[in-house]
Every structure is written in C-alpha cells, then in structure tokens.
Amino acid sequence: MNIKQAKEQLKQTVRAYLSRDEYGDWTIPLVAQRPVLLMGPPGIGKTAIAHQAAQECGVAMVAYSITHHTRQSAIGLPSIRTGSFDGKEFQVTEYTMSEIIASVYKEMEKTGLRQGILFLDEINCVSETLAPAMLQFLQCKTFGSHQVPEGWVIVAAGNPPEYNRSVREFDIVTLDRVRRIDIDEDFPSWKEYAYQRKVHPAILSYLDIKPSHFYKIETTVDGRRFVTARGWEDLSRFLTACEGLDIPVGESVVGQFLQLPAVAKDFANYLDLYKKYQTDYKVEEILTGTFRDSTLRRLREAPFDERLSAISLLLDGVFTACAAANEEDAFVTELHSGLKQIMAALPAAARREEPFQTVSESLSQVLEAQRATGNLEKTAERRKVRVLDTLDGYRQALRTGDVSTSDQAAEALRTQFSAAVARRREAILDASARLDNAFSFLEAAFGESQELVIFLTELTMNCYSMRFIRDNGCEKYSQYNQSLLLGGRQRSILDEIGG
Question: 165 near 54, Cβ under 8 Å?
Fold first, then answer.
C-alpha cells in the first residue's frame, strides 16, 4: 500500500487499541494488541506518518532508532538484590528500568498525555546481542523486566533486506505476533503530504513531469545511488532557505540531497529553467489580471513540459494567497473568541486590565499545554502567539487612550478589532482575485483543455486552495468542476496525458 493508506491504517489501529467497552475494559485485550510493523524502503516517510498519526489522534509519541542502542540501554543494567524463597535468602539479578521505557514515563509526565505511540525505527537492523531483546519486546511488549505502560501502542519500522545488508530476518513466531504493513513508494500520495508541507513548487512541477524520478535506487560500479522522498523534502527546505538569502543552488548542491547523479543533474537543469519561466511568464502580472498577449502566445506555442511548469507557477501563487487568507481567517476567529470573553467581563471588572489578564493567562496555559504535547503545528503556535500579542496591544491602547467607562472601552475594542477584520477581508479578496485571474488566463490560452483540467485537479488536491474555496466559494471552480471533472472526463484526459 502507499504511505497515505498506511497512515490511515495506523490511525485506525491507535483508535481501536485505545478504545474501551461499556465496562471500562480494553476492547482489544492488551495481550492481543499486536505491534504494528511498517516495512518499506528508506526515506519513504515511515517515521513521519507515525508522528502525524500521533498528532491527529491526540496522543503522545516517543521515537527511537534502535540501532543507536546497546543491550544495556534497551533492557537496563543488571543489579544484585536479595530475595527470600522458601524461607531462605538468595542473591538475584534484577534490571534497572530500560532507557526506552523510562522515556515513555518522562513523556507522560511532560505532556500530561497517558496514551501514545512508542515508535522504534530500524527494528530489523539491531545488533546480534540486542536481537533477543527485540524479539521479546515484539512478542511480550517488555524490555527486560519492565512492561510498556498501558495505553501505548507499539509501532516499529524496518527496511526490506534489498535496501540494507544489516537486516535480520524475523522468524515466523515473531511475525505471527505483529501486524506487518508493507509500504511502496507512490508519488501521488506523497504529493498531498508535500502540499501540506509546502514543498518547493519547482520540485513538485519537476516530479509531475518525471514521476519515475521520485524514488530510485540503482546499483553502480561506485555503489548504491539513490533518490528518496526524504531527499526531495530536505532539498526543498534548503532551496527555500537559499532563495530567501539569494544564494544560488547548483548541481553539486542538489547532488548532496539527490544522490543519483543523473537525477541531480536533470533537476538542477530544470531548476534553472523554472526560474527562467518565473521571469519570462511574469506570473505576478497574470495573477493581478494584467497579462500580455505575448505571454498568451508564448504559452500556446510552448512544449507541454513548459506549459506544466507555467501552470505550476500559477498554482504556487494561488496556493500562497489562499494559505494567507485561510490564516487571517483563523487568526480573526481566535482573536474574536478571546476578545468576546474580555468584553463580557469588562462591565463587572474592578480594573479594566483584569479581563485581559484572565483571558491571556488562560490562553497562555492552553498554549503551553499544547506545546508540551509536541502536537502543536508551528503555524497554529505562531497564530496563538499573535493573538496574545494583539490582545496585549489592545490592552496598552486602552491604558493610554481617553477611555473612562466600560462602554467606551468596548467601543474602542470594536474599532481595533475591525482593523483585523478588514485585513482578513483584503486577504480573501486578494486570493479570490488571483484564483479568478489564473482561470481567466488559462481560458484565454487554452479554453477547456487538458491544461485547465490539470489546474483544476491540483486545486482539488491542495489543502489550502480547497479550504479557501470551501469557505469562500469560487464560481469558475464550480463551473469547471461540473463541466470537466464529472462523467469521467478528468480521468480520460489525465490517462491521455500519462500515455
């Protein structure tokens, strides 16, 4: 199965294992809760989907690469204790708590979450001395004499032997106690994740044109050469950082992430072309509705790969505007919630600052609790900090303004909040205009063509554009969604493109 399907199965497993019956007992007894074993090529995203599953299920996560552990750190250190048996005293060996089990308890204490995922990577690459302990762990959910706490789902990951010469084969006894999920590389399912992670548009455009370059492993006279999903994502981060610093990225740098020379060279050449198209097609002019006839003519006469690149540039501009509008909407919603509480408490407050202090403390506590779980996305975290800073700005304005009554304070707050509402409106109007202008340009260039189908399909796949269209509507999207995507026409056109 692909990585997206594996993630859904993992989430379903977590929910099923953590469910209880009407008597409060585990629906699936702990002894029958088989560990999940994710098997797939390196760099495909096995660790990432475990983190996402934990976040989306609202549970904690502790992750280890088991190859970094010795037998002592995994099962604990031996110590001598005195025990009484049948009236006689004996010296017996016991073990200190496993470092891994101790980390689970520390995570529960830090986050306040009693349930979670214990993720062990490279499970089938352990040393010979640690192998028996790993088999015991998978079979009995224990390290040494210490049990994994109740409410923690065990997920392990490994690479098939063709990718790693250090792999140890599991015997049937062990495999019969786990749930094995085999994952294959799959660009379309990764692409949805890539949109969420804002992977560089040049990478997505290139892989749309050459999807076979998404994941490749070759054996050459110089050894293994490869390109993985992890390599593309890490390269994306580096490209974005370098663009912000105006640092050029050439083939040698690309080759440090894409360790298959032919693909690295090909993408480096494409990246230069992509930047050239960015200038030549004057994307910002198109998105603001001022495109030129010469731009239309060039696109009509361009080869198909160049058309795809131009569409990718348009999409990136639309996605960026939609994401900004969505964020402004989420910010105003959260700000309104806090401000509503403050305004409700103003008339009865002994001091005007008390409601601000109460609400800010409450929001700060929620923020810190969410930070502690590790399940708070950076965008959401920054939004909450922005809300706190904005409310503090409102408080400072009331302190220095000419406000003497609670009614005047409420009116002053409404005035300040209206500025945030206006910024949201501007962001929504900007995104709507860019979306409409992109449609108009493609209509003028191609009419109801395969290019328009591709544009529409990508809008549908992207989480930012779909949320924006869902919340704010888009007449042209609805129109073409009916005329182009229904009745199987989209599939036939895309098949034709693939052929």
Answer: no
Classify residue 463 as exposed, middle or buried by CB count within 10 Å of its CB (0-12, 13-18, 19+).
Answer: middle
Per-residue pLDDT at 493 exceeds 50: no
Structure tokens at 341: 């509480």
Going by C-alpha positions, the residue among 166, 179, 101 that lies closest to residue 133 is 101
Each residue's pLDDT tens digit, 408-459 = 888 889 999 999 999 999 999 999 999 999 999 999 988 878 888 889 989 9
Give the pTM. Answer: 0.81
Query: Residue 112: which residues within 8 A CB-CB, separation 6 or more?
Result: 369, 372, 373
> d(Cα 404, Cα 7) in Å, to the nearest integer?
56
| Cα–Cα dist 247/71, whole Å | 46
Q: Nearest-CA neighbor of 460 among 435, 442, 496?
A: 435
As a whole number of angstroms, the distance between CA 312 and CA 201 comes to 7
Torsion of CA 401, 406, 412, 415, to 10 degrees: 170
CA distance 345 to 158: 56
pLDDT tens column, 156-199: 888 877 776 666 677 787 778 889 999 888 898 899 889 988 99
